[in-house]
TrEMBL record:
Keywords: DNA-binding, Transcription, Transcription regulation. Coiled coil: none annotated. One of its GO terms (biological process) is negative regulation of DNA-templated transcription. InterPro entries: Bact_HTH_transcr_reg (IPR050679), Chorismate_lyase_/UTRA_dom_sf (IPR028978), Tscrpt_reg_HTH_GntR (IPR000524), UTRA (IPR011663), WH-like_DNA-bd_sf (IPR036388), WH_DNA-bd_sf (IPR036390). Residues 31-96 form the HTH gntR-type domain. This is GntR family transcriptional regulator. Gene3D superfamilies: Chorismate lyase-like, Winged helix-like DNA-binding domain superfamily/Winged helix DNA-binding domain. It comes from Streptomyces cacaoi.
Length: 260
């Protein structure tokens, strides 16, 4: 049974060596109880394997002699780190995070390289007058027609992101008739329209999803998300598209290759 002295305990490295690195431990060696529990749950998750169901909060509280609130806090951190995921009414061990390169490549190509099955579900393909700021990124005058393509991103049937693409209608006049919404947009531009990609500028930041975005991606509104803004040009240096992609922070990491 938990006691009033549960808030912190002397830190002890588990015998299996699966504890967090020493850099995360205060010099006095005392850590919050939930952190102590979290360190002991890591080998349990590894033993269960991907997709393995976690014991209930009550069972964990009894096994480790802590309160259920301590269990909830430890599980919240493991969920945010992507080690766990919700499945139905329970919690299961998550697979490794998807690594997406910060490069001018499609989401489809990046997911397939990791042996996962990419997918997309269309939310909407609409036509609007381009506002001034966006028009500059698309290389058209303000008020000229543009496409807004919005899709939910999947990896192995799991919702992992939300993608919004903006493109001048003059670039793809028949987009609403020719393009298959569940396919690669970049492949369509290259193979159907003969577009050569040149360069892109990307900005990455951490945000919280709006209630609408959280609903579409299937995550709690408080889950940190990784947001990428991209403005790309074709092989002739002409503005091509503007993309806004929201990725689940618990399911994605990003890599970039640097040359010295």
């Amino acid at each position: 049974m938990a006691t009033s002295r549960e808030s912190s305990v002397p830190y002890e490295i588990p015998d299996d060596g699966a504890a967090p690195v020493r850099a995360g431990i205060p010099e006095h060696g005392r850590v919050p109880r939930y952190y102590w529990l979290k360190a002991r749950l890591v080998p349990l998750l590894e033993g269960l394997g991907e997709g393995g169901a976690l014991p209930t909060e009550r069972e964990l509280a009894e096994r480790y002699s802590v309160s259920r609130e301590t269990v909830r806090q430890a599980l919240r951190e493991l969920l945010l780190e992507g080690r766990l995921r919700r499945s139905g009414r329970g919690t299961v061990v998550a697979g490794p995070k998807l690594e997406q390169p910060l490069a001018l490549a499609s989401y489809t190509e990046g997911v397939r390289r990791q042996g996962r099955v990419p997918g997309r579900t269309l939310i909407g393909l609409t036509r609007h007058p381009a506002p001034a700021g966006l028009a500059a990124d698309l290389g058209v005058a303000a008020g000229e027609p543009m496409w807004h393509l919005e899709r939910v991103l999947f990896a192995d049937d799991e919702r992992v992101g939300l993608e919004s693409t903006y493109l001048a209608v003059e670039r793809a006049p028949a987009l609403d008739r020719e393009f298959e919404p569940d396919s690669s947009f970049y492949a369509y531009l290259r193979e159907r329209l003969g577009v050569r990609f040149g360069e892109a500028t990307e900005r990455l930041e951490t945000v919280l999803a709006t209630p609408r975005e959280a609903l579409l991606v299937g995550t709690p509104p408080g889950l940190p998300m990784l947001l990428i803004h991209r403005a790309s040009r074709d092989g002739d240096g002409v503005p091509l598209e503007r993309v806004r992609v929201l990725y689940r922070g618990d399911r994605f990491s990003f890599t970039v290759h640097l040359d010295g």
